[in-house]
Amino acid sequence: MSAHPEIDEATLVLGIGWTKIASDNSDIQAAARGWARYLDNHYSRCIHNAEILLKSLGLNAYLVGCQEGFYLFAENLLEGRMVGKNWETTLQNLRSQPMIFEGEEVLSPERTPGPDDSAQPMQQQIQQHMQSVRMNNWADYNRLYGEDGAVLPGGGMDVD
Protein backbone atom coordinates (compact mmCIF):
# COMPACT_ATOMS: atom_id res chain seq x y z
CA MET A 1 0.00 0.00 0.00
CA SER A 2 1.48 3.35 -1.03
CA ALA A 3 1.77 6.33 1.31
CA HIS A 4 1.05 8.75 -1.55
CA PRO A 5 -2.08 9.04 -3.68
CA GLU A 6 -1.95 7.60 -7.17
CA ILE A 7 -1.08 10.15 -9.84
CA ASP A 8 -3.02 9.43 -13.00
CA GLU A 9 -4.08 11.20 -16.17
CA ALA A 10 -7.19 12.72 -14.58
CA THR A 11 -5.30 14.09 -11.56
CA LEU A 12 -2.62 15.56 -13.84
CA VAL A 13 -5.22 17.17 -16.11
CA LEU A 14 -7.75 18.28 -13.48
CA GLY A 15 -5.43 19.23 -10.64
CA ILE A 16 -4.42 18.08 -7.20
CA GLY A 17 -7.96 18.36 -5.75
CA TRP A 18 -9.02 15.36 -7.81
CA THR A 19 -8.02 11.88 -6.69
CA LYS A 20 -8.58 8.48 -8.20
CA ILE A 21 -10.52 6.05 -6.02
CA ALA A 22 -7.68 4.02 -4.50
CA SER A 23 -7.38 0.71 -6.32
CA ASP A 24 -5.04 -0.74 -3.70
CA ASN A 25 -7.45 -0.30 -0.77
CA SER A 26 -10.01 -3.12 -0.67
CA ASP A 27 -12.27 -1.30 1.82
CA ILE A 28 -12.54 1.78 -0.40
CA GLN A 29 -13.12 -0.40 -3.47
CA ALA A 30 -15.92 -2.27 -1.66
CA ALA A 31 -17.51 1.02 -0.62
CA ALA A 32 -17.25 2.37 -4.18
CA ARG A 33 -18.98 -0.76 -5.51
CA GLY A 34 -21.78 -0.21 -2.98
CA TRP A 35 -22.16 3.44 -4.01
CA ALA A 36 -22.23 2.39 -7.67
CA ARG A 37 -24.96 -0.15 -6.91
CA TYR A 38 -26.91 2.61 -5.12
CA LEU A 39 -26.62 4.80 -8.24
CA ASP A 40 -27.74 1.96 -10.52
CA ASN A 41 -30.78 1.31 -8.32
CA HIS A 42 -31.84 4.87 -7.52
CA TYR A 43 -31.05 6.48 -10.88
CA SER A 44 -32.08 3.52 -13.04
CA ARG A 45 -33.86 5.75 -15.55
CA CYS A 46 -30.56 7.45 -16.52
CA ILE A 47 -27.62 5.44 -15.21
CA HIS A 48 -26.52 1.90 -16.02
CA ASN A 49 -23.33 0.12 -14.88
CA ALA A 50 -22.09 3.00 -12.73
CA GLU A 51 -18.50 3.13 -11.53
CA ILE A 52 -17.09 5.70 -9.09
CA LEU A 53 -13.93 7.00 -10.80
CA LEU A 54 -12.66 10.11 -9.04
CA LYS A 55 -13.31 12.25 -5.99
CA SER A 56 -13.01 16.03 -5.91
CA LEU A 57 -12.09 17.37 -2.49
CA GLY A 58 -12.78 20.96 -3.56
CA LEU A 59 -16.24 20.21 -4.92
CA ASN A 60 -17.17 17.48 -2.41
CA ALA A 61 -18.22 15.41 -5.38
CA TYR A 62 -17.63 12.14 -7.22
CA LEU A 63 -17.11 11.67 -10.93
CA VAL A 64 -19.12 8.64 -12.03
CA GLY A 65 -18.70 6.79 -15.30
CA CYS A 66 -21.55 4.76 -16.79
CA GLN A 67 -22.85 3.55 -20.15
CA GLU A 68 -24.48 6.92 -20.78
CA GLY A 69 -21.41 9.07 -20.07
CA PHE A 70 -19.86 10.80 -17.08
CA TYR A 71 -21.79 12.42 -14.24
CA LEU A 72 -20.69 14.60 -11.35
CA PHE A 73 -22.53 13.64 -8.16
CA ALA A 74 -22.63 15.45 -4.84
CA GLU A 75 -20.75 13.55 -2.14
CA ASN A 76 -24.05 12.37 -0.60
CA LEU A 77 -25.14 11.02 -4.04
CA LEU A 78 -28.47 12.88 -3.84
CA GLU A 79 -27.86 15.04 -6.91
CA GLY A 80 -25.98 14.56 -10.15
CA ARG A 81 -25.43 16.19 -13.54
CA MET A 82 -23.96 14.94 -16.79
CA VAL A 83 -20.53 16.41 -17.49
CA GLY A 84 -19.84 14.68 -20.79
CA LYS A 85 -20.73 11.73 -22.97
CA ASN A 86 -17.09 10.87 -23.62
CA TRP A 87 -13.86 11.15 -21.62
CA GLU A 88 -12.28 14.01 -23.61
CA THR A 89 -15.38 16.21 -23.36
CA THR A 90 -15.70 15.40 -19.66
CA LEU A 91 -12.13 16.49 -18.91
CA GLN A 92 -12.59 19.68 -20.94
CA ASN A 93 -15.89 20.52 -19.20
CA LEU A 94 -14.45 19.88 -15.72
CA ARG A 95 -11.51 22.22 -16.44
CA SER A 96 -13.77 25.02 -17.69
CA GLN A 97 -14.44 28.04 -15.51
CA PRO A 98 -17.32 27.93 -14.72
CA MET A 99 -17.70 24.19 -15.09
CA ILE A 100 -19.78 23.10 -18.09
CA PHE A 101 -22.50 20.46 -17.88
CA GLU A 102 -24.22 18.75 -20.81
CA GLY A 103 -27.90 19.60 -20.52
CA GLU A 104 -29.86 21.26 -17.76
CA GLU A 105 -31.19 18.10 -16.09
CA VAL A 106 -30.29 17.66 -12.43
CA LEU A 107 -30.77 14.05 -11.41
CA SER A 108 -32.44 13.18 -8.11
CA PRO A 109 -32.81 9.66 -6.72
CA GLU A 110 -35.93 7.72 -7.56
CA ARG A 111 -37.73 5.70 -4.92
CA THR A 112 -36.04 2.60 -3.61
CA PRO A 113 -36.82 -0.28 -5.93
CA GLY A 114 -38.99 -2.98 -4.43
CA PRO A 115 -41.63 -5.53 -5.27
CA ASP A 116 -44.65 -4.23 -7.10
CA ASP A 117 -48.15 -4.71 -5.76
CA SER A 118 -48.71 -7.84 -7.84
CA ALA A 119 -45.90 -9.58 -5.96
CA GLN A 120 -47.49 -9.05 -2.55
CA PRO A 121 -48.48 -12.18 -0.69
CA MET A 122 -52.11 -13.15 -1.30
CA GLN A 123 -53.04 -12.68 2.37
CA GLN A 124 -51.84 -9.07 2.32
CA GLN A 125 -53.86 -8.37 -0.84
CA ILE A 126 -56.97 -9.90 0.75
CA GLN A 127 -56.55 -7.80 3.89
CA GLN A 128 -56.20 -4.63 1.84
CA HIS A 129 -59.32 -5.52 -0.13
CA MET A 130 -61.32 -6.33 2.99
CA GLN A 131 -60.39 -3.03 4.60
CA SER A 132 -61.99 -1.30 1.63
CA VAL A 133 -65.20 -3.38 1.77
CA ARG A 134 -67.97 -2.00 3.95
CA MET A 135 -69.50 -4.49 6.41
CA ASN A 136 -73.27 -4.55 5.93
CA ASN A 137 -74.19 -6.47 9.06
CA TRP A 138 -72.78 -8.50 11.95
CA ALA A 139 -72.95 -11.72 9.90
CA ASP A 140 -70.56 -10.32 7.31
CA TYR A 141 -68.20 -9.32 10.08
CA ASN A 142 -68.31 -12.74 11.79
CA ARG A 143 -68.00 -14.57 8.51
CA LEU A 144 -64.84 -12.71 7.60
CA TYR A 145 -63.21 -12.10 10.97
CA GLY A 146 -64.38 -15.06 13.05
CA GLU A 147 -61.83 -17.47 14.54
CA ASP A 148 -62.50 -20.01 11.80
CA GLY A 149 -62.47 -17.52 8.94
CA ALA A 150 -65.45 -18.02 6.69
CA VAL A 151 -66.98 -20.81 8.81
CA LEU A 152 -69.78 -19.67 11.12
CA PRO A 153 -70.04 -21.09 14.65
CA GLY A 154 -72.21 -24.22 14.60
CA GLY A 155 -71.39 -24.84 10.95
CA GLY A 156 -73.86 -22.34 9.53
CA MET A 157 -77.27 -23.19 8.12
CA ASP A 158 -77.83 -26.79 7.22
CA VAL A 159 -80.73 -27.67 4.99
CA ASP A 160 -82.33 -31.06 5.72
What is the 3D shape? globular
Q: Residue ranges: pLDDT <50 for 5 or more in a row?
A: 133-142
* Largest sheet descriptor: 5 strands, antiparallel
Average pLDDT figure: 75
Taking the alpha carbons of the first and last residues, their distance comes to 88 Å
Q: Helicity range of the residues?
A: 25-40%
Structural class: alpha+beta
Instruction: Count up the helices.
Output: 5
Number of domains: 2
Per DSSP E runs of 2 or more residues, the count of β-strands stands at: 5
SSE order, as H and E? HEHEEEEHHH
Hey, roughly how much beta strand do the residues contain?
Answer: 15-25%
Task: Report strand order across the widest sheet.
Answer: 1-2-3-4-5
Q: Please state the CA-atom Rg, rounded to the nearest Å.
A: 28 Å
What does this structure look like?
This protein has 160 residues and is of the alpha+beta class. It folds into two domains: 9-95, no CATH class; 117-150, no CATH class. The chain is 32% helix and 16% strand. It is built from five helices and five strands, in the order αβαββββααα. The protein has helices at residues 9-14, 26-42, 87-95, 122-132, 138-145, and strands at 18-20, 51-56, 61-66, 69-74, 80-84. A five-stranded antiparallel beta sheet has the order 1-2-3-4-5. It is globular and about 35 Å long. Residues 133-142 have low confidence and may be disordered.
